[in-house]
Amino acid sequence: MQSQLETLSPVLVQVKVEVPWQKVNEDLESAYRAMQRKAHIRGFRPGKVPREVVKNVLGKSIRSEVTQELIRQGIGHAVEQHKLEPVSYQDLSPAAINDGHPLTFTARLEVRPKIDQVETAGLDVERVITPIADTAIDAEIDRLREQGAELVTPEPARPGQVGDVLTFDLRVSIDGEEQANMSATERRAELGKGNLLPDLEKGMLGIGVGETRDISVSFPADYGYEELRGKTAVFHVTPKQIQTKVLPEADDEFAKDLGEDTLASLRASVRTRLESTARERSDSLMREALIEKLVDMNPVPVPPSMIEQETRSMLEQYVRLQYMLRQEPTLNEQVQEDMKQRAERKVRAGLLFGAIARNESISVTEQDVEAKLAEIAERTGKHIAKVRAEHQGEQRRNLELQLLEKKLLEYLVSRATIREVEAQNTATDQETANP
After folding, report:
1. Please, which residues have CB within 8 angstroms of residue 343's CB and are 6 or more apart in sequence?
2. Which helix (H) or strand (E) holds 186?
3. What is the pLDDT of residues 53-99, one digit of tens each?
4. What phi and psi, each to the nearest 5 degrees, are found at residue 178?
5. What are phi and psi of 129, to 5 degrees?
6. Which letter does DSSP use for residue 202 in this model?
7. pTM value?
8. Contact between 203 and 168 (Cβ < 8 Å)
9. Burial of 389 from C-beta contacts in 10 A (0-12 / 13-18 / 19+)
10. What are the C-alpha distances in Å from 270 to residues 120, 143, 194, 375, 425?
11. How confident is the model over 231-285, as pLDDT tens digits?
12. What is the pLDDT of residue 375?
């Protein structure tokens, strides 16, 4: 086979392939013989069909199959000969076998761009250091106290108020018709936590056990659930139990319940954990900034089909997440355009990482994988053989990609100037306590 290459752009090439008639004829004859052995044609025993009968009855389909296989081989030959990295086939000229003549065709291939050098000199990013304030530790201690809270029934009995946990039955009607799918029994919610619809939660304040209260809730025209858009529902709420939370005192006994000797050691432990979380978040943001800077410094072309594929993947993830959050996905032109731009930068970063790995001979060794598997085994308490069995095929490939990305990021960090700056606002409350 022979092939000629024409570069149309950094990500698009055209190959012209010529398959000699001798090769074409050999493949045709081989296909005819194979069909003679397996063809079922009326009037002939299996394996005894004459070649000319096979050619007359099935010749057209056989020639078509041979043509397609030769095109596949021809493109593969061109890819290997010219050291191409194809992404997709954009166009293919018609091709047909003409007895006594070579089979020729042209194909346009979208290819990965050849990146001879990746500019990494001049990478300059900030690592934001977030000091942990005492108020953040106080907030985390309060969260731990909330977890250890005891629910008690107030004496004497009283209506529900903010902070109470209500167990209640619920019926819902819309336009006078009860909605069985929205009703519930023995439902539990804490007033003031924002876990209920705002109007419903407000209407439940001051309600007593055994009392039934009808609470009207109006839904906007763009509400996430189509069946509720623009409608008013009546929630019939009947509390079965009202409980208040009694939090443990923040003292040494409380600390001992959490495995620490004293409240002071608990606070020290909390500080260490929050500092570790803040440091991990800071490192993560710094690495993201490094990748963004790398992409900005190296505006390499990106194959359009790779952008389209990544955009589809990101849109699918976005839609799944929105439905998991029970929200209606927003897929207007602006959202899709933003997604496409993000996809392009993500694909470009992947291409640059691949080029760096090749140029700097950065790879993942068997020892790297084994060390990671041992780490997973120790963390999960599983036997190393079980962990190995769980990381076969695609799972192992994903693990190798994670390890390679880590090595590439470490390389970028080693090449970059990283300036540490203190956050403008000290980390407090839930942002640090609940990463």
Report:
1. 307, 310, 311, 313, 314
2. strand 184-190
3. 777 777 788 889 999 999 999 999 999 999 999 998 878 888 888 88
4. -70, 135
5. -95, 125
6. H
7. 0.73
8. no
9. exposed
10. 38, 11, 27, 25, 20
11. 899 999 999 999 999 999 999 999 999 999 999 999 999 999 999 999 999 999 9
12. 94
| Long-range CB contacts for residues 396-403, cutoff 8 Å, separation at least 24 | 396/369, 399/369, 399/372, 399/373, 400/364, 400/369, 403/364, 403/368, 403/369, 403/372
Q: How many CB atoms lie within 10 A of CB 44?
A: 14
Between helices 394-415 and 366-380, what is the axis angle to 10°? 110
Distance, CA of 96 to CA of 28 (rounded, Å)? 13
* Cα gap 10→351, rounded to integer Å: 13
The neighbour count for residue 310, using CB atoms within 10 Å, is: 20
Q: Answer for the pair 246, 150: CB distance below 8 angstroms, yes or no.
A: yes
Q: CA 123 to CA 416: how far, in whole Å?
A: 5
Residue 89 makes CB contacts below 8 A (sequence gap 6+) with: 75, 107, 108, 109, 110
Distances (CA, A) of 114 to 7, 203, 277, 296, 357: 12, 65, 39, 18, 13
Residue 182 is classified by DSSP as G
Give 10's Cβ-side CA count (13 Å radius): 10
